[in-house]
Write a structure and sequence with these properties.
heterodimer; A: 277 residues; alpha+beta; 3 helical TM bundles of succinate and fumarate reductases; 2 domains; 12 helices; B: 159 residues; Ubiquitin Conjugating Enzyme; four-stranded antiparallel beta sheet; 17% strand; globular; disordered C terminus; Peptidase_C65_otubain_sub1 (chain A); ubiquitin binding (chain A); OTU_dom (chain A); hydrolase (chain A); Ubiquitin thioesterase (chain A)
Chain lengths: 277, 159
């Protein structure tokens, strides 16, 4: 079973490196451990990459039953509840980008069938780029990401087939460029509404610092604050079905923004998002 | 093969040539766009003034989504630079943004030279002297500045 975002899969390298030799380990303050940490992180990511597609085919929800043991009553009951309302699931890789990847794929897939939202959305994207430049972001590197993003969007508008969209999202280079752009849309909205969002931050960080540490770097997971910002920024409402260990047998959902009519639905299991149909 | 990383590195290189920031330069090595050599000139009015410090920058296919590995090949004396030349700088680790490019990496490292953060030391002696004995600190920095010229001369001597 693989549930969860980055870091929840126990990597063999991590286990072997820190057990029994740990007794011999002496911390050397003048040695650079950051590179080792990054190397280890890369190793974990490669392992996840070799077992999970960035975006999977559409699978029957029955597949989920196998992810949990039959004795696991809480989850088995909740899967039954989900099946009464949804038919299929599309899984995304647990690499910390799963919310953006799931959200992006579900939205563009929807645009394939109904292109009416494209002009409005393009305008939002272009305006955000202008706003980011005004916030001090370099035009040169923004162009790199936004051009790729708008190019994919134009293909969706003109001639893209569902298969081509699927291939685009599984081409790591392009797929990750799309993730960066979604992240930039979030950072833009958070900073432009910094006064409001500052109320939700814990600790001493201000909004800019939060964006530098938790929004812009790849593989950083999405929290409520990111989802609130993204759905508000792009005007694409989303329903999230929360499947966790809570008692009751029913899967609860939350709509972003509240009382909206969701355009897409995602399934949340602790630390991870997939797409529901 | 052209990948997003390689395409972007070509654009970074063109930008660095057309619009070079003051006091830094960099270029890919002859056969490998993923490995760059760079030089940072010590900022004026700082103990690092007149130094010509060499670095290597190693990119992966994940660039610019992930930061490159940057390392000084010239000997350094600085609170946030390790003995092996690697650099303790947040934007090269957990604060990396894909909107950075080679030019912004080099200018950030250049600013770090005169704005060390002694609270996360990579070189304890440098951090201690920086806080407690600025004269001795500057003397040690001056020594590596002079060493950077010698290194420069010997490196450019034909073999």
């Amino acid at each position: 079973m693989v549930v969860g975002g980055r870091g929840t899969v126990a990597p063999p390298a991590l286990v072997s490196r820190f057990s029994p030799d740990m007794a011999d380990f002496h911390y050397d303050p003048e040695k650079n451990y950051d590179e080792q940490t990054l190397e280890q992180q890369r190793h974990i990511e490669q392992e996840v990459a070799s077992t999970q597609a960035l975006v999977s085919e559409r699978l029957s929800l029955n597949q989920l039953i196998k992810d949990y043991s039959m004795e696991d009553n809480i989850y088995q009951q909740k899967i039954q509840d989900l099946r009464s309302r949804y038919r299929d699931i599309r899984k995304t890789r647990g690499d910390g980008n799963c919310f953006y990847r799931a959200f992006g794929f579900a939205y563009l897939e929807r645009l394939l069938h109904d292109k009416s939202d494209i002009p409005r959305f393009k305008e939002v994207v272009n305006q955000s780029k202008t706003d980011l430049v005004a916030l001090g972001y370099p035009q040169f590197t923004l162009d790199d990401f936004f051009d790729t993003f708008l190019d994919v969007l134009s293909r969706v508008e003109s001639s893209c087939t569902p298969e081509e969209l699927f291939d685009t999202f599984n081409d790591q280079g392009v797929s990750d460029y799309l993730i960066v752009t979604w992240r930039l849309l979030v950072t833009c909205y958070l900073q432009r509404n910094g006064e409001f969002f500052a109320n939700f931050l814990e600790g001493h960080r201000d909004i800019k610092e939060f964006c530098c540490q938790e929004v812009e770097p790849m593989n950083k997971e999405c929290d409520h604050i990111h989802i609130t910002a993204l759905t508000s920024a792009v005007g694409i409402p989303v329903r999230v079905e929360y499947m966790d260990r809570g008692e009751g047998g029913l899967v609860n959902h939350h709509d972003f923004p509240e009382c909206s009519k969701p355009a897409i639905t995602l399934l949340y299991r602790p630390g991870h998002y997939d797409i529901l149909y | 093969m052209s990948t997003p990383a390689r395409r972007r590195l070509m654009r970074d290189f063109m930008r660095l040539q057309n619009d070079p920031p003051a006091g830094v330069s960099g270029a890919p090595t002859d056969n490998n766009i993923m490995l760059w050599n760079a030089v940072i000139f010590g900022p004026t009015d700082t103990p690092f003034e007149d130094g010509t410090f060499k670095l290597t920058i190693k990119f992966t296919e994940e660039y610019p989504n992930k930061p490159p590995t940057v390392r000084f090949s010239s000997k350094m004396f600085h609170p946030n630079i390790y003995a092996d030349g690697s650099i303790c700088l947040d934007i090269l680790q957990n604060r990396w943004s894909p909107t950075y490019d080679v030019s912004s990496i080099l200018t950030s490292i250049q600013s770090l030279l005169d704005e060390p953060n002694p609270n996360s030391p990579a070189n304890n002696l440098a951090a201690q002297l920086y806080q407690e004995n600025r004269r001795e600190y500057e003397k040690r920095v001056k020594a590596i500045v002079e060493e950077s010229w010698i290194y420069q001369t010997s490196a450019s001597t034909p073999e």
